[in-house]
Amino acid sequence: MRRVRAGKPSTPAGPGVSATLADVARGAGVSKTTASDALRGHGRVSDATRQAVLDAARRLGYSPNRSARSLRTSVTDTIALHIPEFLTSAEYYMAFVFGVAEQAARAGLNVTLVSSGRVPQVDGLILCDPMPDNPVVDQLMNAGLPVVTAETYGGDSRPSGVIWSDHGTSLTELLDHLRARGARRPVLIASDSTADWTLTLQQTYAHWCAEHGIPRLLRKAPFGAAPEVLRGLVGELLAGTPETDAIVCAADGAAAAVLPEIRSAGRVVGEDLLLASCVDSLAMRTAEPPITAIDLRPRHMGSECVRLLCALLAGEAPHGTTRTLAIDMVVRASTRA
Amino acid sequence: MRRVRAGKPSTPAGPGVSATLADVARGAGVSKTTASDALRGHGRVSDATRQAVLDAARRLGYSPNRSARSLRTSVTDTIALHIPEFLTSAEYYMAFVFGVAEQAARAGLNVTLVSSGRVPQVDGLILCDPMPDNPVVDQLMNAGLPVVTAETYGGDSRPSGVIWSDHGTSLTELLDHLRARGARRPVLIASDSTADWTLTLQQTYAHWCAEHGIPRLLRKAPFGAAPEVLRGLVGELLAGTPETDAIVCAADGAAAAVLPEIRSAGRVVGEDLLLASCVDSLAMRTAEPPITAIDLRPRHMGSECVRLLCALLAGEAPHGTTRTLAIDMVVRASTRA
DNA sequence: GCACCTTGCCGGAACGTTCCGGCACCTCGT
DNA sequence: ACGAGGTGCCGGAACGTTCCGGCAAGGTGC
Hints:
Two copies of one chain form a homodimer. By secondary structure, chain A is of the alpha/beta class. Chain A is built from twelve helices and twelve strands. Chain A has three domains: 21-64, 434 Repressor (Amino-terminal Domain), CATH 1.10.260; 78-165 and 298-326, Response regulator (Rossmann fold, 3-Layer(aba) Sandwich); 167-295 and 329-335, Rossmann fold (3-Layer(aba) Sandwich), CATH 3.40.50. Helices cover 41% and strands 15% of the residues of chain A. Chain A binds a DNA duplex through helix 2 and helix 4.
């Protein structure tokens, strides 16, 4: 608990210790007010003085103390990020995190991870795939801070901003594609999570089936279900409903996981059984055959969330702003019969 | 840039605005010094007053302003986390991140992600899989802050602490296992990254081969190589060196990616060709057949890094402390011939 | 010459916390 | 009765920043 900074505050900043604004002011021969104004571009400062201050700052390696700044302005230049803990979707979330980190760095913001419900002292929050029954999400939602969610939130409170993708349209497109490839009995294997995304997929599927006079063949697996469970499900499905000619898996990675089961049921993916996934990932690309999937562009999703949050914080976007992120179907051999 | 907090500082804290220490002191009828002492457990305070302060704090929903505290003490209660951006190893890194986040939350620390080289104002850094040729890593290493690395660092500077796993012993164990299963020509497919982990694997393999009078059949693929590249590699390997009876893949996910290629070369994994991975993941578990792999326990790795960093910060561990994290080989059908 | 505005700069208070030093009171031992 | 030592509490300075208000010097119009 000892103080880290060196003793004499009048020395021109020891090694490893960042110079203070007063040091810069002294170095430029001006007052700290002027130094601050010059650096922030706020007050009225002549070009010559501004240049002198800038030089001094660079020479001394000045970087403003964030705590002091934040104490004074009550702006932390920090946003919090919460992601659900599902290692099954690791690739999606990881890409999302990098998208957030990159865009935040660009905007000069720090990103802090929040796992518990303890609301951190930040300027705003980003919640990825918020599920209404998650108490942590609930606390964060009602913390009185600006919140941007990735995908819509099914709960009561309204976030300040939302970035969402039109999964309904995408799934319809995917189902149409399967139909064009000859599929007449497509099955949707969805998860039972409370994420809005899952629900949209199920509704869209039901709607599409009704529209095409096709029986609803929905199967549900627990969110983050073990591959064995998924396989068992598919095994039963193919044995019990052999007329199944296409399978769409909602969960990340599920389609790749069930491939062996399909094969051992004597079906040939891409030939007499079409297979597709609602989430693209490395596993889809590397599967044999590669699996048609919807690219959710998680990295873009991450950076767009930060963009929107910044706009909200700057007052450039109204509370309740909702933006759409385009997503793409990627057709691969598994549906190219 | 407007101030967020409400106007009159004498009101007992408006809604949504955290109470200040002065509010608590007033609420408990003591001075702010006493309030601070009572909450921190520092000075000499009678039990009765301490209780009164604690009550007032709870009643007012007091939570100390981190900026003010940090400004005063120059302790930020925040650590920075850097992970290399390789989405192929998404599952490993994701688990690592959660391990860090969880343990940090337990220790009352914030975690901020750092992607650029800009050194954040934190108490310490955790660098996951630091590669010597990464400029960002370099800057962070030499920031003059306590650093804990996950896996040893191959560069010049010495981190304050290291958590590492004995990949050499594990790979030896794995190779011995393959040999016991009849393999006489095991091939190692390594990546050409500069991570210490990769180098250790290659050295261990070379050493093991020499010891057993087995030809060194090392193949290198770029780190994060596309699955097609890996497949091409394996295809050539099996065509050119048909006496290959076991393949060990270093890179995360690689073993699962090359499975189809092996199959289409007419080899049967687990029967006439053993396959194993140096990194366990969902893909290894769900592959058909499931693939023997080394479980690196990334989540533990994450939390152990935080533990060590905390110990270093508290002065409970000496600079340069190195700790080992046990890792396990998980035998599955792919080597159970 | 005066009134007035603009420009360039600065003093100093405030943000919320920690903690040094000090003061008043009480309890003993002598 | 008195000093020594302990206990319980507090005043106020300091951390580094921002920014309000003010002041002097120079310019402009009359």
